[in-house]
Amino acid sequence: MVTLGFFRIVCLSACFILTAADEDLVITPSRLVVEYGAKASANCTTPHNHQGMGWEATEGSIDMVQNVHFLTWTVQSLTVWDIKPECFINLARKQSVKKLQITVYKLPDTLSINSLPPVIEDERRYLQCDVQNVAPVQYLKVTWYKQQSPVKSFSFNESTITPVNVSSELMIKPSREDDRAKYWCEAKLELGPDGPQPPPTMTSDPIHIKVYYKPMFSNDTEIIEAGDGNIMLNCTDTANPPSVYTWEGLHLEGKKEVKLSSLSVSYPGNYTCTASNAYGKAKKLFIIKSKNHNYTTLIAVLVPGLLLAVLLIAGYWFKFRKTATGGSANHSTAPSPSAQKEEGQELVSAAI
Ligand SMILES: *[C@@H]1O[C@H](CO)[C@@H](O)[C@H](O)[C@H]1NC(C)=O
Ligand SMILES: *[C@@H]1O[C@H](CO)[C@@H](O)[C@H](O)[C@H]1NC(C)=O
Ligand SMILES: *[C@@H]1O[C@H](CO)[C@@H](O)[C@H](O)[C@H]1NC(C)=O
Ligand SMILES: *[C@@H]1O[C@H](CO)[C@@H](O)[C@H](O)[C@H]1NC(C)=O
Ligand SMILES: *[C@@H]1O[C@H](CO)[C@@H](O)[C@H](O)[C@H]1NC(C)=O
Ligand SMILES: *[C@@H]1O[C@H](CO)[C@@H](O)[C@H](O)[C@H]1NC(C)=O
Fold first, then answer.
1. Ligand 3 centroid to 313 CA: how many Å?
2. Which ligand neighbours the alpha carbon of 285 most closely?
3. Which ligand 5 atom is at minimum distance from the Cα of 262?
4. What is the pLDDT of residue 311?
5. Domain 2-105 belongs to what architecture?
6. Nearest CA, atom 4, ligand 1
7. Which of these CATH numbers, 2.160.10.10, 2.60.120.10, 3.40.50.300, 2.60.40.10, describes 110-209?
8. What atom in ligand 3 is closest to the CA of residue 165?
């Protein structure tokens, strides 16, 4: 073989003794990664003339044969976890043996996350991902995902080669934004470059967590300029379960029982809305300013003032008319009964 010859030239005699065993037998591939129950096969080659060559294994062993330089070990369905096939040749003065490295793997039967009762905001909880019957656990990597992003990974420092049950825990402290957040776990067998690409992977069904949280306003004070007509106060908050509302304000006598998140009011002033649920409460202040304070006070003074003035003027006018007609009668020599009657008729007509 060209490569072996090359090695002989490169290696000095001290090196030769070490490489000799390797040269006796070459197994391809040198490491085999097989799924449990799948077909496994490897070739053993020797450059030597020998007295016998064979494979020894708990499955698929091949009895010693002669006059071959090449022998294939094959198992149609590999169901032995700790199989260690060995290729051997018998030479004149020694037996040469080479082991085939085999990793038998199996994805989990199931991968599941415990269900989680509703959590209160900022409380700690643990999620558990149960991995059932996976092998070999030393190549297993369990990764937790929140929505689409990995949050934490776990490896298992165990040398068991047969299937085991393992679990991995994730501590969570959900915020209000995490309500309905999706969590899931993934089991990946990172079997290295000799293993299947991409690495065998299994994912759990997702769980959606439920988070309860107290009412909160994005802005707990709102200053509103009063316009024409009614003003809508919007007390929308974030709370789970949804809030119930109570309202307070000078102009709200008898209206405090309003349970809605918005309220229509007619007068400027301060109004307070209290949102509450089982986990807490929050207040929001609405300050409604008059559009133009001086202008409204002016109206407030002027309107009743004008009314009063009109009434007074009207009153004076009647009185003036009465005294005016009476005065002219005084100037006449003698008020006739008919004139008095006329005067009375005029009064009546003026009054109408
Ligand atoms: C073993 O050798 C045979 C013949 O050269 C080839 O067809 C086969 O793919 C080889 N198997 C492996 C696992 O290398
Ligand atoms: C794995 O376990 C071995 C022996 O139990 C220990 O020496 C080694 O430090 C561990 N490795 C890790 C990464 O925990
Ligand atoms: C893993 O768990 C399953 C179900 O609980 C059980 O049937 C099985 O025997 C367990 N396997 C091991 C290796 O403990
Ligand atoms: C909260 O409301 C006040 C008054 O309406 C306003 O000036 C402020 O910009 C608001 N802040 C936010 C964060 O919306
Ligand atoms: C109240 O404000 C919220 C945002 O804070 C908005 O989504 C909602 O549509 C508003 N409701 C009304 C009745 O204006
Ligand atoms: C309304 O509330 C503001 C802020 O708390 C306060 O400065 C103001 O005096 C209040 N106005 C009335 C009429 O209560």
1. 103
2. 6
3. 13
4. 76
5. Sandwich (2.60)
6. 43
7. 2.60.40.10
8. 1
Between the two ends of the chain, the Cα-to-Cα distance in Å is 137
Contacting residues for 79 by C-beta, under 8 A, at least 6 apart: 36, 37, 59
Q: What is the rounded average pLDDT for all residues in the chain?
A: 84
214-289 has the same fold as 110-209: yes
Is residue 137 classed as helix, strand or coil in its secondary structure? helix
Structure tokens at 71: 């022998």
pLDDT in tens, 70-108: 999 999 999 999 999 999 999 988 999 999 999 999 999
* Domain extent listing, the chain: 2-105, 110-209, 214-289
Question: Minimum-distance ligand to the CA of 43?
Answer: 1
Interior angle at CA 270, CA 266 and CA 274, nearest 5: 100
Name the CATH code of domain 214-289 (choices 3.40.50.2020, 2.40.240.10, 3.90.1150.10, 2.60.40.10).
2.60.40.10
Place of tokens 């999620």: 127
Closest ligand, as measured to the CA of 225: 4
- Residue 133 CA to ligand 3 centre (angstroms): 7
Residue range 334-352, pLDDT digits in tens: 444 444 444 444 443 444 3
Can you tell me which residue has the tokens 């992977």? Answer: 201
Centroid of ligand 5 to alpha carbon of 101 (angstroms): 67
Give the span between the Cα atoms of 203 and 274, in whole angstroms: 45
Residue from 217, 224, 230, 236 to probe ligand 5 pocket by mutation (most atoms less than 8 Å from CB): 236
Helix (H, G, I), strand (E, B) or coil at 9: helix
pTM for this model (two decimals) = 0.73
Give the residue, by CA position, lying nearest to ligand 5 atom 6. Answer: 236
